[in-house]
Design a protein that fits this description.
Layout: H1 16-43, H2 55-63, H3 70-75, H4 85-96, H5 101-106, H6 109-116, H7 135-141, H8 150-176, H9 183-209, H10 214-245
Bound molecules: heme C (HEC).
Length: 256
Amino acid sequence: MVSQATHKINLCSQGIALKSLFTGYLVVVAIGYLMAIVQIQFTHGMADGELGLSIDDIVYSYYGNRSGSVLEAKLNGSMKLNTSEENRLKIINWVHKGAGEQSFNNMGIRTIMDESCVMCHNGSSGLPIPDFTKFENVAKRAETDEGATFSSLARVSHIHLFGISFIFMFVGLIFSLAAGVPKYLKATVIVMPYVFLILDISSWWLTKLNPNFAWLVIIGGGAMALSFAFMWVVSMYEMWIMPRLRSDYRDALLDE
Ligand code: HEC
């Protein structure tokens, strides 16, 4: 029998309703996290032309590959399989020859674009990618690659700051009810994602200015993922496994 005095505020002794709510949220957020990692592999992971996220990818994404153009980098990377080897080399050759408008038509680049690229790269695809039915949009990608623009960094930064801090608010709230974690460790794990979120996003801007900061992006993102995983596993454990082993009479919210 659970009396008023023994029912404490901790994950282990909550009822099935609150546990289900917490679990549903944690599961969906974890799937979201996995999807984000998959998406990073597709966008940044292929930046250097090889699968998997590396320091080079991060440098290319934020600082740019200043020895070449975005068009060339993408044709060696995530856009490689969208056209034949011959067409790919034709486009790269055109870029090396100065990417002029006249040669765009004369060298058959317009035709290649129309056949292999504009089914995705058009104004009405709904994808956040350049419209290659317009020459100037192709020409812009043929210029030296300076990485992410400040305006795109500002956009992605504020979306990440608002969105991710919100996710960690709820993950942290659930985890704060875990009674089995010493209070200083718990406070550290809860505050870590916020510290590393700021570090991660600052490091995008620093990498835009100086490629040596690319490793900070990896550390920031990795530490954030680690604290997420820790809070997730401990919360799930205290909700679903611990109650089978014993009762928990501790109060997780009091600094006892
Ligand atoms: C199946 C759809 C599809 C086709 C076909 C396609 N692309 Fe893309 N393209 C995308 C998507 C999605 C992105 C954004 C993700 C990325 O950068 O990998 C993109 C991004 C790009 C970018 C980077 C744009 C930027 O400003 O960041 C370039 C350059 C590019 N594509 C060139 C091409 C060329 C050249 C072709 C034709 C040979 C082509 N693409 C064919 C879907 C497509």
